[in-house]
Design goal:
303 residues; alpha+beta; Glucose Permease (Domain IIA); 2 domains; 26% strand; rod-shaped; binds zinc ion
């Protein structure tokens, strides 16, 4: 028996509304099915393509936005880098200033604790020529600069506090060092060997004599404490001031006292009045400076 395969067809008929004859297209069913599948697949591909296109379009907009943000960020990083640089320059200026202050005060310069100076970034436009690597470099160096500032600013603060203490100590020492004329007048006898005006014998004169008008003020040559204010044989009315730092001054032949023993006095304060008490041939001040208990030439402590 012969099996006869029946061919199946699909017929499309086009019937015009005029008198023209009917056009009928006979398409084998398998062709129709194949065409339908191709159409379906094409539709599916088109859909996928449109979806991807939309997605890509979205991503492109995002990329453009990100680029803008990146540019802004880079500008901010550059600004931060420059500001950090500026801070380092200011710290260096502070260094310079404290060194100058030390010089002026004749103090030793502040000790540097950390030598770990960072690789300093000198901001330069060439960095812009290498956008990604350049910015990374800027960030790395800025981070280094910031860590340097984190160490150096507290260190600088410590140095300045030390400097403040040193300056205060220096001022205290200066105030306690005889440096002014204790009386107005003319020097009639210097420190050193001489013929005594009273005994006419050779003697060593342990101070200088300043002759002036009786009753004129006698001033403390430096800050200190009056440790003696009384009559002493030979010296007459005498004041001794202890200034600390192994220094003391003696004022003799006073007419009278203006401060009692035990009082604290300031440089330039009136402590008594010029007279001629004790072994004296006329109104004058006998002024002595003692360092570590030894009389030294007062000229070294006069302006
Ligand atoms: Zn004298």
């Amino acid at each position: 028996m012969q099996l006869r395969k029946k061919k199946r067809f699909f017929t499309i008929m086009i019937i015009p509304h005029t008198e023209e004859s009917i056009v009928s297209i006979r398409i084998p069913l398998y062709l129709f099915q194949t065409l339908s599948i191709i159409l379906l697949i094409s539709l599916l591909f088109s859909f996928v393509w449109i979806k991807s296109y939309q997605q890509l379009k979205g991503e492109a907009a995002e990329i453009s936005q990100l680029r803008g943000e990146n540019r802004n960020l880079n500008e901010h990083i550059d600004l931060l880098a420059r500001e950090t640089e500026e801070l380092i320059r200011k710290v260096e200026q502070m260094d310079e200033l404290s060194r100058e202050i030390c010089n002026l005060m004749e103090l030793p310069p502040p000790e540097k604790k950390s030598d770990s100076y960072p690789i300093r970034l000198v901001y330069n436009e060439n960095i812009r020529a290498l956008p990604s690597r350049g910015e990374n470099q800027v960030i790395e160096r800025t981070a280094l600069n910031i860590s340097y500032l984190q160490v150096s600013i507290p260190e600088k603060n410590g140095e300045l506090l030390q400097l403040k203490e040193d300056v205060e100590e220096y001022q205290k020492q200066m105030a306690a060092t005889p440096s002014i004329w204790p009386a107005r007048g003319r020097v009639t006898s210097e420190f050193g060997p001489r013929l005594s005006p009273v005994t006419r014998r050779r003697e060593f004169h342990f101070g200088i004599d300043i002759a002036g008008q009786r009753g004129i003020p006698i001033l403390a040559a430096a800050d200190g404490k009056v440790v003696f204010a009384a009559y002493r044989r030979g010296f007459g009315n005498t004041i001794i001031i202890n200034h600390g730092y192994s220094l003391s001054t003696l004022y003799a032949h006073l007419k009278s006292f203006n401060v009692p023993a035990g009082s604290e006095v300031k440089k330039g304060q009136v402590i008594g009045y010029m007279g001629s008490t004790g072994y004296s041939t006329g109104a004058h001040l006998h002024y002595e400076v003692h360092k570590k208990g030894i009389a030294v030439n007062p000229r070294g402590y006069l302006p």
